[in-house]
Amino acid sequence: MVSGKYSALSGAVAREQAMDNLAANLANVNTTGFKKDRISFAAILRGTKQTAEARGINYSRIRKIGVDFSQGGMQTTDRPLDVAIDGEGFFKVQKGQETFYTRAGRLMIDENGMIKTEDGLNVLGAGNNPLQIDTAEGKDISIAESGDISVNGVLAGGRVQVFAVAEPDKLIKAGNALYKLEQGGDQPLDEFRVLQGNLETSNVNMIEEMTAMISTQRAFEAHNKVIESYSKLGEKQDELGSVG
User: Fold this and answer.
1) Short-list 77, 80, 81, CA closest to 91
2) DSSP assignment string, 86-143
3) pLDDT tens-digit readout, 18-68
4) Where are the domains of the chain?
5) CB-based burial of residue 224 (10 Å sphere; 0-12 exposed, 13-18 middle, 19+ buried)?
6) Which positions ≥6 away from 188 have C-beta within 8 Å?
7) What is the pTM of this model?
8) Which 8-state DSSP code applies to residue 40?
9) Distance from C-alpha of 155 to C-alpha of 144, rounded to nearest angstrom
10) Which of 5, 38, 52, 74 is the most exposed place for a label (fewest CB within 10 A)?
């Protein structure tokens, strides 16, 4: 009986963690460049262990929480410094000595001509150097699909570069649609497409997440009912005492 109770408990804990994950996804449904997390479950006991050690009763846990890097939709803004990646890859940005990756392309230019994210991080070019162009207020800025930046129709010498990460599953969320690469490396893509005047929206599908939340909540409640049933059986067992 104890094995069954702990099996239900492990299931309830796993579903509670899944609910937290779904809530975080829904909270970022309107965050530019946000990528949803996906949870996969696994059994703790397998094969002979499940039969011999737990009498066929299994235990569940969260096997992995992984980022779903599928592309979000495109939102037209018509703002010259808004850019979205059409396809795979990331913008590479820098804060101090730390390097991050992002799909959020709402850019700005400071008084020194440095191209930055809206949070003030420097945008890096193919040579991993911060992008800087010669511009002044009121000039017409154009960003081609190749990332080349022009000012008043003349190439300004800067290029918004897109980078490929060899192992995207090594990227760790660092907040504000930023990702940090703890292991592995990247390389600048030779061919990519950026869309000026657009932003990539979150890839969270609200209806899909709400459906998953309802299903997870029901599973959580079912596990809790099982736990309550085992608790009541235990109380009755204590009242009856042991025979012999």
Assistant:
1) 81
2) SSS-BEEEEETTEEEEES--BEEE-TT-BEEETTSPEEB-TTS-B-B----TT--EEE
3) 888 899 999 999 999 999 998 765 555 555 444 455 444 555 555 557 899
4) 2-70+204-240, 74-200
5) middle
6) 126, 161, 162, 163, 164
7) 0.77
8) E
9) 10
10) 52
